[in-house]
């Protein structure tokens, strides 16, 4: 941020990219509680396929923790990549809208790596005490269109 | 851009990345006319394999629109990812030269996602009324080398 | 860098991303000597699987050159993508610590493209005469965990 307090597009993009990197490193390492802290208190995840939204950090951490234990049992690593990140600051409330592609790579022990899922992710990021957090995430799977 | 009118490497990179994100979101959603407007009037696409160049927005939109209709018929989604983006401003005319990797992911309804094509993309971007546009694009497919 | 000599997170990220783009373009084109010059004189690569570290530019170039000749014989192209780049400047010595994901795409002549390897890469970048160079790289393959 400049001394005038106005954040430039380059500064915001750097911040969003650093945020996603840290956020998905936590997720993919199974650090579910720390990952949930990158959402707001009342953060909501709208999963693909019209499933019930997951609300709040405890529920978010619980879901991700259970998913990670299943990966451990399957002896598989997942890596979440965000790319083609389009960033739109919303003047009305200072939120940062993101539309991007998400690719999940899956690698079983012994390989090979496969492209597990291709998705579109829509995030509403908000700034809380200076840090970006996810207030709302909506994910659409490319293999389940119209859902 | 700073108040002095000099664009920094960080500002230019943020602009290029935002441009590509919006550009490929349009392409992958089949918004062919809007996508073609991200080229200059006389924009040229040199397809891989030595095929004839596609010149001008009408031809660009026509080709992409036809491609999108084939994907709809095949019930498949394509996602274009640009990555490893090397940016070289050209002092002589202010153009922005880009060399990057391009990955196309393809997902049929019901899955799974596959890595459809890996390419190298060379773009000449120019600024028209303050906005970046593609003046020239050259794509090389990794599965068709020497072409 | 600003006139005060303080590099901002946005400037550093742009520099790191440009560095990786150029670095992997050299690698994937088999320009082994030039690629080795993007390491420090005493640069070290710790390969996955607990294999012996590769030390110094001559050894780095030798290993990469041999690998590239094997790809030519196999008539295959590799593309290295870095993504989800988390950047941590280290105040003590000015080094730049990077943790990121690495994806290697492999495309034989005639296709199709496959996801050859998914890795985590940890780099220590240092600034030498104004330019970033790799002083140390540690790569972990997702298909070989615990190594």
From TrEMBL, chains A, B, C:
Pfam families: SnoaL_4. Residues 10-138 form the SnoaL-like domain. It comes from the Bacteria. InterPro entries: NTF2-like_dom_sf, SnoaL-like. This is Nuclear transport factor 2 family protein. It comes from Actinomadura luzonensis. The lineage of its organism: Bacteria, Bacillati, Actinomycetota, Actinomycetes, Streptosporangiales.
């Amino acid at each position: 941020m400049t001394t005038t307090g106005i954040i430039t597009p380059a500064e915001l993009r750097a911040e969003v990219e650093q945020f996603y990197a840290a956020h998905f490193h936590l997720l993919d390492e199974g650090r579910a509680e720390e990952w949930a802290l990158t959402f707001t208190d009342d953060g909501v995840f709208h999963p693909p396929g019209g499933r019930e939204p997951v609300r709040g950090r405890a529920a978010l951490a619980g879901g991700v923790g259970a998913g990670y234990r299943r990966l451990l049992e399957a002896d598989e690593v997942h890596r979440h990549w965000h790319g083609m990140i389009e960033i739109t600051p919303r003047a009305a409330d200072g939120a940062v809208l993101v539309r991007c592609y998400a690719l999940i790579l899956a690698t079983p022990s012994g390989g090979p790596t496969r492209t597990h899922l291709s998705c579109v992710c829509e995030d509403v990021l908000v700034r809380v005490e200076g840090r970006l957090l996810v207030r709302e995430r909506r994910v659409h799977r490319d293999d389940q269109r119209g859902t």
